[in-house]
Design a protein that fits this description.
alpha/beta; Rossmann fold; Dihydrodipicolinate Reductase, domain 2; 9-stranded mixed sheet
Length: 382
């Protein structure tokens, strides 16, 4: 029988519920991995979430504080999805309690908070700590990652990665914590969306060595739900133009990251585009079953759509027959985390974001803030 890993969840907003749902659907996978079991949930402020827990996860213990949950011998690991200003406090307590952690990005409200979390990781090397990022686990993106690892692009000309939302185009949408700097941090949309755009480039060894940032505060105020208008104090959109070296060719190239909460026409679109002298490739969640390849041949060039079906990193009951969606990518992200508990130590083909990679993200985002404030390109050191 497969080993069981007992999970607690801290924070039952959207992503906490998505994670709980992924645990409930674990039987959809057909690989012999350790099995996640939801044994505890910490939710103190939202009555509707507490009722949701009682309805769908009645066997899980409902805790009134994180510390009480961490004292439980029935918890091996914690998935933590709380506002950014709580990351340092929650993540360090989880790690110091000896519980494994899969935490939401950005792993700290700022660079100082991230450093404190990584110090806790160094003090407790026996604890598995990873950061969430779902979009590389789409099946077509799996094929594009394979294409990247084969270095079929030749010399890289340019890389573009982005995550576009459009829900904030509704100017009557009430404010929430992601639009308030005291909770979301000075990074704004970059802290919320940045790691999604960085995950694959970082894993390919493409670390920005400079950044020039164009940040926008488009909406100055929003309704507070009580009849008042209150200030929005975070960045809505960000475009970061970077320079990086490809370790395969040792050649420099341009890399552009786009993180936008106000992107007309994009409901929730993540994309990666790589342009090279031999071949180019692109993937977008707007066409999740396919990635596109262009082979450079003379003057006439055209993209070829490669439909790869839905064969995921970890096999599913249905194989590649039925289509994949966002919830499936979260299940695959969880599967990558569960690989860390395999007795045979076999590694996942594309592991979750590592703590060190979150440090790199904070270096880039801190540089972006400086660039936007000064109007200058900022050199980055790691």
């Amino acid at each position: 029988m497969s080993r069981k890993v007992r999970f607690g969840i801290a924070g039952m907003g959207l992503m906490g519920k998505e994670f709980a749902s992924a645990v409930a659907r674990w039987c959809h996978l057909s690989d012999d991995l350790p099995v996640p079991v939801l044994t505890g949930i910490c939710e103190t402020s939202n009555p509707a979430s507490r009722e949701w827990i009682k309805t769908y996860f009645s066997n899980a213990v409902l805790y009134t504080s994180l510390d009480k949950m961490l004292l439980s011998a029935e918890i091996d690991a914690v998935y933590c999805a709380v506002p950014h200003h709580l990351h340092e406090s929650f993540y360090t307590r989880i790690i110091k309690a000896g519980k494994h952690l899969l935490g939401e990005k950005p792993f700290g409200i700022d660079k100082k908070a991230n450093e404190a979390i990584l110090e806790a990781c160094r003090e407790h090397p026996e604890v598995i700590v990873r950061c969430s990022s779902e979009f590389p686990y789409f099946p077509a993106m799996k094929k594009m990652i394979q294409w990247l690892e084969e270095h079929r692009y030749g010399q890289i000309i340019e890389v573009r990665a982005g995550f576009h939302h459009s829900s904030d185009l509704d100017l009557n949408k009430p404010i929430n914590w992601k639009r308030m700097a005291e909770f979301n941090g000075e990074y704004g949309c970059m802290g919320d969306l940045g790691m999604h755009t960085f995950h694959v480039p970082f894993r390919m060894g493409w670390k920005p060595k400079s950044v020039y940032a164009d940040l926008q505060k488009i909406v100055k105020e929003r309704p507070d739900g009580k009849g008042n208008m209150v200030p929005c104090t975070t960045w809505d959109n960000a475009v970061l133009t970077c320079r990086a070296d490809d370790p395969y060719t040792d050649k420099e190239f341009s890399m552009v990251f786009e993180m936008k909460r106000m992107a007309p026409g994009a409901t929730n679109t993540w994309f990666l585009e790589v342009y090279g002298t031999k071949e180019s490739a692109r993937f977008s969640t707007s066409d999740p079953k396919a990635f596109y390849v262009l082979e450079t041949k003379g003057k006439e060039q055209g993209w070829t759509r490669n439909e790869v079906g839905s064969q995921s990193f970890v096999p599913t009951i249905t194989g590649s027959i039925f289509e994949t969606g966002f919830s499936d990518s979260i299940l695959q992200m969880l599967a990558a985390f569960m690989y860390e508990f395999r007795e045979d130590k076999k590694q996942h083909p594309f592991p979750n974001v590592l703590p060190e990679e979150t440090r790199w993200s904070h270096i880039v985002l801190t540089g972006a803030l400086e660039s936007n404030a000064t109007g200058k390109q900022i050199k980055l050191t790691y």
